[in-house]
Specification:
The structure is a single chain. This protein is mainly beta. The protein has 5 helices and 45 strands. The strands form 10 sheets. Strands 2, 5, 6, 11, 12, 13, 14 and 16 form an 8-stranded mixed β-sheet that branches. Strand 3 (69-74) and strand 4 form a beta hairpin. The longest helix is centred in the N-terminal third of the chain and has 24 residues, at 3-26. The radius of gyration is 23 Å and the shape is globular.
């Protein structure tokens, strides 16, 4: 197997060991709930939403099977449980933890995060027991709202709380209707001591992987800070650069965390538009600078007609993240774990597109370590609408003249496919035996040519034109991210920059400004522009 898959196997083994460790720490894991489940007579329903406002967080946080450890204090001694992570409601930076619990007073214990920066591995320990206690009452819903883990520089993390979160209430109503109906009229319970408009600032211990001592002795506790601007600070410093799209006049739009849409204006300045929500914006469709559609977690779809000053909610049938929005001749398409279209986006008259099928391993389980979200891509050429779905070996094609769908099969799984029109496509293709490779097509995806094999993980390929290309390669041995370029259509590649000075985390986003001929990359909410023939980079956000 290739280095990529050997590395992937190691990651799976490590993830399994970490999950086992968390299981032991958390105690018994709560049973996974289904939408049809009702509240048990002697239990209450508890839900909490945690957002980590940084691009790359650990598999512990993103994909743990046990979830958050919680503790019940009784006269007979403490009991520990593991909150269940809700896999159906969301993907990416926002994680939902929930469960049915017996009556009592509880607290959260801790959140363990492992992140990789350059060739160093870091451990973070977030002591959530400092947030206080909450009660569980049979037949009631305990809504603990949203906690944002916001880095503020150095080793400091800020816990920002949104109490009585209406977005969490909506999530319960949509995903657990039986529980919601059974508890309606009884009111919701929150934290024992509300700390709205406060933020708990912690000096989080972060150490290299070879650190042998216990964590507790290195944690410096801070007092609760009354900071009404905490949420504004987090939104201003939102991370993520999802689904970047450029319009003909040069502006670039991308989704970000905490309900933000980032915009590169024509003058080169970066601004951000706040939708008023805290859900991550995962897809954008800019019609022009004034009319912008934004799709987000938990089926959120918004539109602005005044350049982002105000936003209007559009109802959709999707419950999971909206990862794709497109408009073609008055027809709107949205996609997530399912696909829909409508000719009247304001009328909530959506029709499921049954011709688009996703494999079972893909539906609802998109790994968030692919820079938050993979990107559905599409384009119109030759009178046809081409749709590419990550991790699928199928290209879906809609003939716009006959309204008939057809498919093209590939010998590999798609990474993120992009087009330069006139039938030219490029892609990172993944196959079991050959690993990742850059492939190109000159006939609308009907046939593919491997340009060059490179060991390691490849992502963010960019073809400036048919000959000049860029790609980021993650070296699993040195753990460095390396920028490579090609001047011959991808047949050969030259190393340009290894980003050692930046300790660039894996992964990061490479993207190109085709109007102004500028190369950018984004990581953890920071955006850099290339200068000096790609040898140096200037931070622009």
């Amino acid at each position: 197997m290739s280095g990529y898959y050997n590395n992937a196997v190691v990651k799976l083994i490590v993830a399994g060991l970490l999950a086992s460790f968390l299981s032991a720490c958390a105690g018994s894991s709560l049973p996974r709930l289904k939408p049809t489940d009702a509240l048990e007579p002697d239990k209450g329903f508890v839900i909490i939403r945690i957002i980590n406002n940084v691009d790359f967080v650990s598999q512990n946080f993103d994909r743990s099977w046990v979830g958050l450890p919680i503790r019940l204090k009784t006269n007979e001694g403490d009991r520990k449980f593991g909150f269940t992570r809700d896999l159906s409601a969301t993907m990416g930076s926002t994680q939902i933890f929930l469960g049915q619990l017996p009556q009592g007073t509880y607290d959260l214990l801790e959140l363990n995060v492992i992140s990789i920066h350059g060739n160093r591995r870091y451990y973070s320990w977030l002591p959530l027991d400092k947030l206080g206690t909450f009660k569980v009452v049979p037949g009631h819903i305990t809504n603990l709202g949203t906690i944002i883990c916001q880095p503020v520089g150095g080793r400091l993390y800020q816990f920002i709380h949104i109490n009585n979160d209406t977005e969490v209430q909506e999530l319960i109503k949509n995903n657990y209707p039986v529980v919601y109906k059974g508890a309606s009229g009884k009111g919701m319970i929150g934290w024992d001591n509300s700390w709205d408009n406060k933020s708990l600032l912690e000096n989080i211990f972060i150490a290299p992987s070879d650190y042998p001592k216990s964590l507790e002795s290195k944690v410096a506790q801070k007092d609760i800070l009354y900071k009404s601007t905490a949420l504004s600070f987090a939104k201003e410093h939102s991370a993520g650069f999802n689904n970047p799209r450029q319009i003909a006049t040069g502006e670039i739009f991308a989704g970000s965390k905490l309900g933000q849409v980032l915009v590169k204006e024509r003058d080169g300045k970066w601004t951000q538009l706040d939708t008023g929500f805290t859900r991550e914006i995962t897809a954008v469709l800019p019609i022009n600078r004034n009319i912008i559609y934004a799709g987000g977690e938990e089926g959120l779809l918004l539109v602005t007609n005044d350049g982002g000053k105000s936003w209007k909610r559009v109802e959709t049938p999707l419950k999971t993240s909206i990862l794709f929005i497109e408009q073609i001749s008055g027809r709107f398409f949205i996609g997530g774990d399912l696909f829909y279209e409508t000719r009247n986006i304001a009328g909530n008259n959506w029709r499921a597109i049954d011709a688009i099928k996703l494999n079972n391993t893909y539906r609802g389980t998109i790994p968030s370590n692919k820079l938050n979200y993979p990107e559905y891509t599409s384009y119109i050429d030759n009178g046809k609408f081409y749709l590419f779905i990550p991790y699928s070996n199928t290209i879906f094609v809609l003939d716009l003249s006959t309204n008939i769908w057809s498919t093209i099969k590939t010998s590999f799984d798609n990474g993120n496919v992009y087009s330069l029109k006139n039938g030219f496509l490029y892609n990172v293709g993944y196959s079991l035996w050959f690993g990742p490779r850059i492939v190109v097509s000159h006939d609308f995806g009907n046939s593919w040519i491997t340009t060059h094999d490179m060991l390691g993980v490849l992502y963010s390929p960019i073809f400036k034109d048919n000959q000049n290309a860029f790609v980021l390669r993650f070296n699993p041995i040195s753990r460095n991210v390396i920028l490579r370029k090609s001047n011959d259509g991808g047949k050969s590649w030259e190393e340009v920059n290894d980003f050692n000075d930046l300790e660039l985390p894996h992964p990061s986003k490479l993207f190109y400004d085709y109007v102004n001929n500028k190369l950018y990359f984004a990581v953890d909410g920071m955006i850099y522009i290339a200068s000096d023939d790609l040898k140096s980079w200037t931070k622009v956000r």
